[in-house]
Amino acid sequence: MTRPSAVPPPVTEVLDASSRWLPSRLGEVEALLREQAGGHGELLGGDADMTLAAGGKRLRPLLVLLCAGEEGGEAAVRAATAIELVHMATLVHDDVLDNAPLRRGLPTVAATSGRARAVATGDLLFSRAFALLAERPDLRSIDLLAAASVALARGELAQRQDAYDTSISEERYLERCRLKTAKLFECACLLGRDEAALGAFGAEIGLAFQLLDDVLDVAGPPERTGKARGTDLLDGTITLPLIVAAGDDPEIRAVDLRGLGEAAAAALCDRIASTGALEKVRSRALEMVTAGKRCLDAGAFDSEQRRLMDLVADGVVQRYS
């Protein structure tokens, strides 16, 4: 049985609690990811392989496999691999847009190989995702992943449009998160099985995931996140902790994010935390996780599937506790 490198504890708990087929299938996904990343020339293939070697939570492929169930077979493995390739591509492109030096505590492709090669690496990963699904044509899966990819692009454009604008509303922020994060979680569940309850579960869990990730950006510490506290603030990305904190401390809304350095960003993080905003956002995320679990009540799942999906939902919270 082969597992992804650096599998985080929440995913490990799901694998350990599952029947043997699930970790075995996730190992197949990892092998197929290596196959898809390699063999594209020394430079481009090397950059793609470096992105893969950086690891990750593999939550999205795990959701595909889990929702498909043991009978999902090769089709589920291919869909799970494709969605992780899209996710990896977005991370590489995000790092280009953000001029990010680190990702998961390691140098980014943009930092080591330059912006042009990083863009090409992201493009490669995107193209391999759809080429993989096209090898054994599954129009439904292609349509789902294409729609999610369009949503990702729309979410990214909205985030860029909102950059440094501390006046944006909570509703605008949540819509961005639905497009840029929750949609891919929803897609993962629907790739596994065409059931509305699963799509709704994925959307709620994905939204909670993003809220908690934004809390972690403010709370740190850097040795856990692999990046400086307040990286989103430095990038001009307006997140829910800042929006909520500004409601209690209006002077936060007047801060000029364009003029922040790392020390000032850390100080602003402390100020946001002092308002109690982080606890409020965590509470909202917990409500979303609970709502996601309730969505599953409308579906028909065997006892193991339901138990493991609950564990995935709990793991989203545990990852940021």
According to CATH, what is the topology of the largest domain?
Farnesyl Diphosphate Synthase
Arithmetic mean of pLDDT:
89
Described by the principal axes of the CA atoms, the overall outline is globular
Spell out the helices and strands N to C.
HHHHHEEHHHHHHHHHHH
Considering the protein shown, what is the CATH homologous superfamily of the largest domain? Farnesyl Diphosphate Synthase
- Structural class, from helix and strand content? mainly alpha
Low-confidence stretches: 1-6
- Give the class-level CATH name of the largest domain: Mainly Alpha
Largest beta-sheet details: 2 strands, antiparallel
Number of structural domains: 2
Number of helices: 16
Protein model, in words:
By secondary structure, the protein is mainly alpha-helical. The protein has helices at 9-17, 21-37, 42-53, 59-68, 73-98, 109-113, 115-135, 139-161, 170-192, 196-219, 222-225, 231-235, 240-248, 262-274, 277-295, 303-319; strands at residues 102-103, 106-107. The chain folds into two domains: 12-137, Orthogonal Bundle (Farnesyl Diphosphate Synthase), CATH 1.10.600.10; 139-305, Farnesyl Diphosphate Synthase (Orthogonal Bundle), CATH 1.10.600. It has 16 helices and two strands. A hairpin with a 2-residue loop joins β1 and β2 (106-107). α2 crosses α4, α2 packs across α5 (73-98) and α10 packs antiparallel against α15. The model is unreliable at 1-6 (pLDDT under 50).
